[in-house]
Specification:
The chain is α+β, with helices and mostly antiparallel strands. The chain contains four helices and 13 strands.
Length: 296
């Protein structure tokens, strides 16, 4: 087959680029394999020097169980993890920790985000197979299960990390809402079949009942389960429209003009498993609402 000279150089260049890319890919794989082997050797040397007996997973994560909690709960996707931790280099330098002395654990939503220094794969390995609620362990993560090529001033790239971790709590959305209502003395008088928890604070039994299609002016404050305010103000709402989340409109349908109420509902009535710009996926929400006026 003859090649048109006009395009022959393009074909030749394409072939050279292909060879170059394959060479780079092979080199990258070689570097990755080398780092994996070096990380494993470094961790084993550290464990030997400290007299630590640890188990190794097939993925290369080493762990030593320090203590086991009384529970056996493992997280499902969407559950809230709470943990305290100390992250150290293998030379003993502590690079980060939670506020253990202040009893302020870090939190992560399983399947959505991660604890510090954990990759997605490490989260799955540790919480699917190793730790349950109340457990504590020393974890030794190779760089490819932690920060990888990302380094900091205190933590060089491709460094293994030791994480002393205690799982203080694993909470479902229901458990988060139970704790929030209890800890903040939230008045709840009923729970609907959809999961909305409703509590009327101020009643006006003779005022106009909200119904589908009602146009309302509503004053509101929205809070996450850590009690931080994520939104507040006044809002014009048409009941039955998609301008507000389901839990909000379902709560308003239980009210009359001038009334105030508490609304506490799961993510299925909020922003679901995707969340939005201000709300993470699988987030229960709490609203204090007041109907200022009703037009129809």
């Amino acid at each position: 087959m003859k090649v048109n000279k006009k395009y022959g150089w393009l074909i030749a260049l394409s072939a050279l680029l292909t060879v170059f890319l394959i060479s780079c890919e092979d080199q990258s794989d070689s570097i990755g394999s080398e780092k994996r082997q070096q990380n494993d050797a470094d961790i084993r040397a550290y464990l030997s020097s400290k007299g630590i007996t640890a188990q190794r997973t097939t993925e290369g994560l080493y762990y030593q169980i320090i203590s086991q909690g009384s529970g056996s709960q493992k997280p499902a996707v969407g559950d809230q993890l709470k943990a305290t931790y100390v992250a150290s280099r293998l030379d003993g330098v502590i690079v980060d920790s939670s506020e253990i002395s202040l009893n302020k654990p870090v939190t992560a939503t399983y399947g959505v985000d991660r604890l510090p220094y954990f990759s997605d794969q490490a989260m799955q390995i540790v919480f699917s197979n190793i730790l349950t609620e109340g457990d504590s362990a020393a974890l030794f993560l190779p760089s490819y299960l932690s920060q990888g090529a990302t380094g900091t001033l205190l933590f060089p790239a491709y460094s293994p990390v030791r994480i002393d971790l205690k799982v203080t709590a694993i909470n479902t959305e229901t458990e988060q809402m139970d704790a929030f209502a209890r800890d903040n003395s939230i008045r709840i008088t009923e729970t609907t079949d959809t999961g909305l928890r409703f509590g009327k604070v101020i009643s006006y039994p003779d005022s106009a009942q909200v119904k589908d299609g009602s146009v309302l002016k509503v004053k509101y404050t929205g809070r996450r389960m850590d009690n931080t305010i994520f939104d507040s103000g006044t809002l014009d709402v048409t009941i039955g429209s998609s301008s507000v989340v389901q839990g909000f409109s379902q709560g308003l349908l239980k009210m009359r003009a001038g009334e105030k109420a508490n609304l506490l509902f799961p993510s299925s009535l909020g922003y679901g498993n995707q969340g939005n710009r201000n709300i993470a996926g699988f987030s229960p929400l709490y609203f204090e609402v007041e109907i200022i006026s009703k037009k129809n």
